[in-house]
Amino acid sequence: MHSYYIALIPPNYILEHVNQVIQYFADKYNSRGALRSPPHITLQPPFKWDEANITKLEQHLTNFASRRTPVPVTLNQYGAFAPRVIYIDVVNTPELTTLQLDLMTYMESIGIYDPNTKTRPFVPHMTVAYRDLTKQNFKVAWQEFEHRQVNFEFGADNICLLLHDGKRWNVLSKFQFS
Asked: Does the keyword Transcription apply (predicted)?
């Protein structure tokens, strides 16, 4: 059994910017956790799946994506899950919420279920400083980033399946919307 999750990954020009911010947190605040995954917006939290059946999972995701249309995504300002996580906030639009809810429902129909999603609201975000950020460094970093401006918009036209290789998360497959 391997670990996977499903996410939206922004276009390269946004990836480059966000990766620079993540590297800044690694260098200045010793928060390296966000380096273990490409910048992303999680739609389906990590789950286990038998590697022998990966083709079946990919077929399911192809089927799901083929019935979707692109979703507008806006990255706006910085946010935090105090006292350890700093992220770029993603505007929670009805289209994005619907995509996430539909995916969760679809995944549940094929046996993938995360009980936390029933009790926690969907808070779309792109993590730049992970839980390895100390509380002391969080306070200093949050003062630096709390009012910093960031604004990007893109049309999400696919979802990505990421696989954990034992050290980091990597994009395994992309599933194009119609």
From this structure: no
pLDDT tens for each residue of 103-146? 999 999 999 988 887 788 999 999 999 989 999 999 999 999 99
With both helix axes pointing from N to C terminus, report the angle between 94-109 and 54-66 in degrees, rounded to the nearest 10.
140
Cα R_g (the chain), whole angstroms: 16
Q: How many residues make up the chain in this entry? A: 178
CB distance 126 to 75 below 8 Å = yes
135: tokens are 């509380």
Go through the domains of the chain in sequence order and give each one's CATH number. 9-46+68-157 (3.90.1140.10)
Q: Which amino acid is at 173?
A: S
- Please give the model's pTM, rounded to 2 decimal places: 0.95
| Whole-number Cα distances in Å, 24 to 5, 11, 18, 70, 105 | 25, 20, 10, 31, 37
Over pLDDT 70: what percentage of the chain?
100
SS3 101: helix
* Apex 54 CA angle, 158 and 58, nearest 5: 25
